[in-house]
Write a structure and sequence with these properties.
552 residues; alpha/beta; Alkaline Phosphatase, subunit A; Arylsulfatase, C-terminal domain; 2 domains; ten-stranded mixed beta sheet; 15 helices; 25% helix; globular
């Protein structure tokens, strides 16, 4: 595939590209990239950034195990985050959070549909101009390159089709809609190109690798670059490359403590799962687990090729490389066959590995980060003044650089709006209306009132998760993950009522936060202040949090 820039007359290797808004000489004074001069006098020596994003790759169930080269080339050469979370365990809301640095209640992408604001015209008009890649391009003078899955509804005819190219991208190679490996269409700078099922020229992970290497060879050397490579793996349909289709034959989904057990004292959606699972369900999820790992081997090859090319071009030592996923996954936990969307660690926790200038090798940190922090961190690397953004996240560049006596957050917000229609599934007439994502044995992974919000807290005293559901019960789940890492025992009815009230209040605060107010001290931070009078309405009743009902 021949690499082409978004606009005619774009950069080639060794050729300059002029910015429409600011020349490099004016960036420091006029455009807000305040840290440029600290990095180097020459514009070309500002750090480059690569963001590698997997699709549905878990951390809790061993999702990084197949990626031996990725762990060696990124994790062992830099820092691994053991407490990295997503604010919503679903593709489109999570990806929107990465791009905007905002929680879902602020970017208003609530699910994977156009009606849920996934790549809708409203998203394109309001949020896309303010994503961190748009800032990198228009303000900081970076070449920006995208390849792979963007948002689940990207390319929908009702939202501009494949001709739509989001603001801020110099090179655009985006997949139409959701992940596939063969028989897909790419938008190449706004023009459709169909691919078939010939492995040598069509396998999407390899196509993304090749076009990324082309970019590194043909880009301009006069500007730093940002690359975002978003692979289909390990998302369904789990189509492995031919050379990997017989690997991991003796691998099965982990039989951990919450595998194939009843979700006692949990939300009704979890309780409805059938325990024990049928043999056919277990065989299905074992096969899915194995195939997921197989698809990741091509991602591992992509990472190796990318790192080697950066090294060959003399750019590796000046390039930050991030590897992460948009959400986790489960295979049989609490007898739920396969999916994401739930509030538990296996769905909301993701891998995060980073290498780059100034990051010491072989480090692991327990500092609590979320994917809303990726945008602020990358803008910080570029020298942008973060006070000029409306982002909810924080830059973790000081963590990467080993800053001492760092004041950091102790909690993050997780929120999800359930999906389901007010009709009964004809294949499962015994189930009530409103369920969705149902399997043949009538176990459903989602419902209209699977709408929840959680405070995920990590401090030196507590490793806690507090969640509330927007249903008639206002159902509450609380877990002490120090004593119960598999989240089997809901302690909502036994925990100290005073702590429960504080967590309820903190949840309300985070669910209504925006920008700096999302970074206020948590319940266990020294600067935290709790006024119990705010827990009551004017009528003397306990106030409960209000869930957003975003409608386009």
């Amino acid at each position: 595939m021949r690499l082409l820039p978004l606009a005619s007359g774009g950069p080639r290797r060794g050729s300059p590209r002029h910015l429409p808004s600011c020349s490099p000489a004016l960036l420091l004074l006029l455009c807000g990239c305040l840290g440029v001069s600290r990095v180097a006098a020459a514009d070309s020596r500002r750090p480059n950034v690569v963001l590698l994003l997997a699709d549905d790759q878990d951390e809790v169930l061993g999702g990084m195990t197949p990626l031996k080269k990725t762990k060696a080339l990124i994790g062992e050469m830099g820092m691994t985050f053991s407490s990295a979370y997503v604010p919503s365990a679903l593709c489109c809301p999570s990806r929107a959070s990465i791009l905007t640095g905002k929680y879902p209640h602020n970017h208003h992408v609530v699910n994977n549909t156009l009606e849920g604001n996934c790549s809708s015209k409203s998203w394109q008009k309001i949020e896309e101009p303010n994503t961190f890649p748009a800032i990198l391009r228009s303000v900081c003078g970076y070449q920006t390159f995208f390849a792979g899955k963007y948002l689940n509804e990207y390319g929908a005819p009702d939202a501009g089709g494949l001709a739509h190219v989001p603001l801020g991208w110099s090179y655009w190679y985006a997949l139409e809609k959701n992940s596939k490996y063969y028989n897909y269409t790419l938008s190449i700078n706004g023009k459709a190109r169909k691919h078939g099922e010939n492995y040598s020229v069509d396998y999407l992970t390899d196509v993304l690798a090749n076009v990324s290497l082309d970019f590194l060879d043909y880009k301009s050397n006069s500007e730093p670059f940002f690359m975002m490579i978003s692979t289909p793996a390990p998302h369904s349909p789990w189509t492995a490359a031919p050379q990997y289709q017989n690997t991991f034959q003796n691998v099965f989904a982990p039989r951990n403590k919450n595998f194939n057990i009843h979700g006692t004292n949990k939300h009704w959606l979890i309780r409805q799962a059938k325990t024990p699972m049928t043999n056919s369900s277990i065989q299905f999820l074992d096969n899915a687990f194995r195939k997921r790992w197989q698809t990741l081997l091509s991602v591992d090859d992509l990472v190796e090729k990318l790192v080697k090319r950066l090294e060959f071009n003399g750019e590796l030592n000046n390039t930050y490389i991030f590897y992460t996923s948009d959400n986790g996954y489960h295979t049989g936990q609490f007898s739920l066959p396969i999916d994401k969307r739930q509030l538990y660690e296996f769905d909301i926790k993701v891998p995060l590995l980073v290498r780059g200038p100034g990051i010491k090798p072989n480090q692991t940190t327990k500092m609590l980060v979320a994917n809303i922090d990726l945008g602020p961190t990358i803008l910080d690397i570029a020298g942008y003044n973060l006070n000029k953004t409306q982002m909810d996240g924080m830059s973790f560049l000081p963590i990467l650089k080993g800053a001492s006596n760092l004041t950091w957050r102790s909690d993050v917000l997780v929120e999800y709006q359930g999906e389901g229609r007010n009709v009964t599934d004809p294949t499962c007439p015994s189930l009530s209306p409103g369920v969705s994502q149902c399997f043949p044995d009538c176990v459903c992974e989602d419902a209209y009132n699977n709408t929840y919000a959680c405070v995920r807290t990590m401090s030196h005293l507590w490793n806690l998760q507090y969640c509330e559901f927007d249903d008639q019960e206002v159902f509450v789940e609380v877990y002490n993950l120090t004593a119960d890492p598999h989240q089997i025992n809901n302690i909502a009815k036994s925990i100290d009522p005073e702590l429960l009230g504080k967590m309820n209040y903190r949840l309300m605060m985070l669910q209504s936060c925006s920008g700096p107010t999302c970074r206020t001290p948590g319940v266990f931070d020294p600067g935290y202040r709790f006024d119990p009078r705010l827990m009551f309405s004017n009528h003397g009743t306990v106030r409960t949090r209000r869930f957003s009902k975003h409608l386009l």
